[in-house]
ABC transporter (Salegentibacter salinarum), 410 residues
Amino acid sequence: MPNKDQEVLVKVEGLSKKFCKDLKTSLWYGVQDLLSNLKGNRAERELREKEFWAVKDISFELRRGECLGLIGHNGAGKSTLLKILNGLLNPDAGKVTIKGRVGALIELGAGFNPILTGRENIYNNGAILGFSRKEINEKLDEIIDFAEIREFIDMPVQNYSSGMKVRLGFAVAAQMEPDVLIIDEVLAVGDMGFKLKCFKTIDEILPRTAIVFVSHSMPQVSRLCNQVILMEQGKSSFQGNDIARAIDLYYNRFLNNSSQEIFSDGTFRLEKVELMGATGYEGKVPVLHWNDNLNLFFKFKVKNVKEVPRFVISIFDKEQRPIAVFEKNDKNAGLEIKDGNLEFFVNHPNLQLTKGLYSLHVLLLKMNSSGPILRMNDVLSFQIIHKEDVWPPLLLKTNYQNYSIKNLTQ
Ligand SMILES: Nc1ncnc2c1ncn2[C@@H]1O[C@H](COP(=O)(O)OP(=O)(O)OP(=O)(O)O)[C@@H](O)[C@H]1O
């Protein structure tokens, strides 16, 4: 819930920005807009041929201590919105009001002059943020130490690796403690150690700062943000503080209902796979409740082979990480190929996967030699429902018992 006691640091009202898909036309529109501005007319609000809205009608308020996550697929308009907030782009409509100093980490190396050294760039950026030379001198060591690039601080930034640029950028943006901090996906470039350090720093400064955070990493969004805007073709398709709901919607957008054959020697073909006893459907995706039994039915068409293969059936989560694998069938599992068909069930009692979307990948190996026969990804997707939204893949059924005197004497 928004903390109404805190002051609003960022207010965005009906923000829109359009771009043109074609450079020549864009230049021509630019000239037209310039002339019409000189005559005192506002820039065109309607789309002209080849134009599109990169950001359309976005509004939000952000208070000190709040972190807004901007999520959405590539090209949804997130970076464009950040650039407008940071004053790098002018909107075609709407208004941005920001109170206080803005620190931004937008494009890799943006805000740095490549021919100046790291040290000179710290002074430049500090000055842009509104700090005096004396204030920057006081922070200089902290910034260099945080970025862990003391050895290279007098080297031109153009010779820095991408990780070094991000280290310096984040160190300046965060150590100067701006009132508003804008962070684009760039943090993804840093190594694990630096990322952890950045998140620790964000946690530390958040109570005094308003943060706008763009990321494709949903664990990071859920860890940091207390409001989210899910962007789709420039518009907000979801906005609010139900982060779990926003993340579900984001993942559903990437839902791929078609299975993918990676390898086949032509002997086995998957004809059917079904989740038995689903409690419902979300779109076409079968739904189970946490702790339900998982019952899968498989049917393969078999050509010129009599030997039952070994099955490796894995569960992948929405980030495409393998999180579980079923025990392989052994020779004596009793499976049989009959009339060119191999049909069987796979059962697992009390599936304790956490809320969310999962998919099955299947690998068939020769029983004796383990040579590959068939490999298929995403043969089935299913959704687990639970009231609790937790990030680890397993929520284990647990009993808590009071530690009583009776237990002591037992
Ligand atoms: N200067 C520009 N001129 C024309 N089109 C642009 C310009 N900058 C961005 N666009 C277009 O605007 C749309 C939104 O781009 P933007 O970079 O904001 O997306 P994004 O959500 O940040 O994507 P990503 O996740 O890939 O970083 C895209 O279609 C992009 O091609």
Notes: The chain has a mean pLDDT of 88. Residues 23-38 form the longest helix (16 residues). Residues 19, 54, 72, 74-80 surround adenosine-5'-triphosphate (CB under 6 Å). Residues 184 and 214 are 5 Å apart (CA to CA).
